């Protein structure tokens, strides 16, 4: 987060608010526990005052480590009041969206902002009234706005609309309180497989990714109820079955986003209700490729029947080394898959040995041996003296 004060604006008190799971719900925010996220709480003074008119106070730039999709900005307790005797200045808060990278963002109202109007690029009061008391929607603004786009950064200008009573009440003051939350995609296999969650970015499986758990933020990974997510990486009846006698299994997976994004998958081959390290496959990054192939070595102890497949993609390989946990980009999909029964190989038929029916050949060989024996050399006894 970068703060750029306008003119003589001073940041006289600043707090970086870390994530706080115990933060109280706020009826003007969605999710109601939007204050559980990280954010800032600042007090600004000495900004230029335009009596009964608008003044720019500070530009706030929110930056992310990689592009995120449609971040939500939670505004609460933003505004100010200064009194001196009978004189008073109310500083009604307003926001103007200055821009973003790499896309040009727009605002969409999600919740709250009573008494305020949300347009594509502004959040301003519907009307200004003199009032004895202040609350959300009266001087102070509070609500949730979605900043539309896949963004690495966006900048807002915090503005002050002075409403003066009787005279100048002195040095101006204005509070600015902002928190951010990001949409996530969650796994939906049975609970025994563990939960995986991904922040929505420009990396996804199939044709796109839908946000889950949009009404409650969490600081730990969480899954959906079994098989309730919208998964489109594998369609038309789900993944092909794993042949029982196969030594390998290859699955083509469509991916979107940067070419260097990592892809990994797990198949519960032994059907023990969890994804083991030996059941993992990973695809190599390919430039300009919209489809990656995962190839598993199929173990011999495959248990036939229905089981689960998990696919995870992320901008970094480290995020998909395990089947569970947080990833700061990408998407997770769970699919049911069938393991076919191993079939024993058919016996090999050998040709039968044939018996010889002609016994005459054996007799002929025997007669030839006997004739040859008679022709052997014998001494002539008559010539012996």
TrEMBL record:
Region Disordered, residue ranges? 275-295, 318-385
**What is the superkingdom listed in this entry's lineage?**
Bacteria
Compositionally biased intervals (Basic and acidic residues):
350-370
Do you know which InterPro entries this protein is assigned to? GEVED
> Pfam families attached here?
GEVED
Q: What sequence ranges are listed for the domain GEVED? A: 263-338
Listed name of the protein:
GEVED domain-containing protein
Could you tell me which species this protein originates from? Nonomuraea dietziae
């Amino acid at each position: 987060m970068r703060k750029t004060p306008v003119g003589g604006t001073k940041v006289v008190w600043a707090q970086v608010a870390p994530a706080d799971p115990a933060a109280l719900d706020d009826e003007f925010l969605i999710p109601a526990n939007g204050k559980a996220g990280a954010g800032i709480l600042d007090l600004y003074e000495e900004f230029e005052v335009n009596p009964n008119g608008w003044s720019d106070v500070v530009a706030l730039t929110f930056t992310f480590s990689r592009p995120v999709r449609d971040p939500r900005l939670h505004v609460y307790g933003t505004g100010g009041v200064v009194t001196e005797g009978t004189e008073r200045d109310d500083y009604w808060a307003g926001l103007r969206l200055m821009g973003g990278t790499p896309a040009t963002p727009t605002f969409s109202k999600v919740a709250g902002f009573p008494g305020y109007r949300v347009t594509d690029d502004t959040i301003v009061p519907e009307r200004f009234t003199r009032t004895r008391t202040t609350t959300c929607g009266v001087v102070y603004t509070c609500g949730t706005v979605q900043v539309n786009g896949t963004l690495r950064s966006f900048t807002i200008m915090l503005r002050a609309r002075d409403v003066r009573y009787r005279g100048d009440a002195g040095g101006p003051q204005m509070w600015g309180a902002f928190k951010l939350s990001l949409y996530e995609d969650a796994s939906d296999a049975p609970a025994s497989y563990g939960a995986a969650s991904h922040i929505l970015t420009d990396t996804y499986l199939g044709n796109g990714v839908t946000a889950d758990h949009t009404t409650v933020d969490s600081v730990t990974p969480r899954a959906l109820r079994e098989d309730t997510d919208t998964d489109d990486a594998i369609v038309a009846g789900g993944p092909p079955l794993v042949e029982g006698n196969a030594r390998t299994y290859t699955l083509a997976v469509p991916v979107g986003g940067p070419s260097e994004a990592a892809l990994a998958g797990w198949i519960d081959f032994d059907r023990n209700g969890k994804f083991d390290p030996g059941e993992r496959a990973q695809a190599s990054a390919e430039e300009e490729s919209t489809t990656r192939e995962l190839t598993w070595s199929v173990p011999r102890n495959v248990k036939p029947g229905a089981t689960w497949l998990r696919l995870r993609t992320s901008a970094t390989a480290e995020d998909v080394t395990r089947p569970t946990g947080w990833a700061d980009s990408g998407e997770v999909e769970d699919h049911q898959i069938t393991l076919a029964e191993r079939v024993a190989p058919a016996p090999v038929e050998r040709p039968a040995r044939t018996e010889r029916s002609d016994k005459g050949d054996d007799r002929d060989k025997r007669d030839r041996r006997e004739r040859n024996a008679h022709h052997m050399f014998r001494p002539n006894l008559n010539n012996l003296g």
